[in-house]
């Protein structure tokens, strides 16, 4: 008599978690963050809302983990050469080319509808809810921004950037204008703008 295999609870939980991620991202893109609810996410994912509350306390937390997972999935799909992986921004020896490559990739991501709506929702929630904002910055923004600092320090070691430059301030010369233009729509967001940011910033950072 054949033995019955017990259901794999871990696999079932992973399927539910994945369905919840997909549902949260889809709803925010379709109806907007304000109208997205835990109940709506649960219905879209085909799970009970108690399942969601067992893992998260708010829709903001659901969306943040879904967004982080989206980034992980994209990095894995891109392969080992993707700049956002643990190894950081590639160091080809050409700081200008490397920074242009990463800013262009960032522009492409910000213009991708899969990222745009949830990213804007998380940024807005972070402003309205300081506690969530601190978590959002710590888990999402700072790890990515630290990659710039590491690459800029390597450029300093190679003599491509002045040794007295603060890499954290230098990092903001690239990332802050890009984020502002994306959030406020003050001008076109494209590869030409990304390249110009790098060229303008490096003109002031190059050794004298």
UniProtKB/TrEMBL annotation:
InterPro entries given in the database record: Homeodomain-like_sf, HTH-type_TetR-like_transc_reg, HTH_TetR, Tet_transcr_reg_TetR-rel_C_sf, TetR_C
Residue ranges the UniProt entry marks as DNA-binding: 37-56
Pfam families xrefs: TetR_C_11 (PF16859), TetR_N (PF00440)
Domain spans labelled HTH tetR-type: 14-74
UniProt entry tagged with the keyword Transcription: yes
Keyword annotations from UniProtKB, A to Z: DNA-binding, Transcription, Transcription regulation
Keyword 4Fe-4S: no
PROSITE patterns referenced in this protein's UniProt entry, alphabetically: HTH_TETR_2 (PS50977)
Highest taxon listed in the record's lineage: Bacteria
SUPFAM superfamilies noted in UniProt: Homeodomain-like, Tetracyclin repressor-like, C-terminal domain
UniProt-listed PANTHER family: HTH-TYPE TRANSCRIPTIONAL REGULATOR RUTR, TETR-FAMILY TRANSCRIPTIONAL REGULATOR
Designated name of the protein: TetR/AcrR family transcriptional regulator
């Amino acid at each position: 008599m054949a033995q019955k295999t017990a259901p794999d609870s871990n696999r079932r939980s992973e399927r539910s978690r994945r369905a919840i991620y997909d549902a949260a991202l889809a709803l925010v893109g379709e109806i907007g963050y304000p109208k997205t609810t835990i109940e709506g996410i649960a219905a879209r994912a085909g799970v009970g809302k108690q399942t969601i509350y067992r893992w998260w306390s708010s829709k903001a937390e659901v969306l943040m983990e879904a967004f982080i997972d989206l980034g992980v999935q994209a990095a894995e799909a891109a392969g080992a050469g993707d700049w956002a992986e643990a190894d950081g921004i590639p160091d080809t020896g050409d700081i200008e080319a490397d920074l242009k490559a990463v800013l262009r990739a960032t522009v492409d991501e910000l213009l991708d509808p899969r990222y745009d709506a949830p990213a804007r929702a998380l940024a807005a929630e972070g402003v309205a809810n300081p506690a969530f904002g601190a978590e959002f910055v710590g888990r999402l923004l700072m790890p990515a921004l630290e990659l710039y600092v590491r690459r800029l320090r390597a450029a300093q070691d190679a003599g491509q950037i002045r040794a007295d430059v603060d890499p954290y301030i230098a990092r903001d010369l690239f990332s802050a204008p890009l984020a502002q233009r994306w959030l406020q729509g003050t001008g076109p967001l494209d590869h030409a703008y990304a390249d110009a940011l790098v060229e303008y910033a490096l003109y002031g950072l190059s050794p004298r």
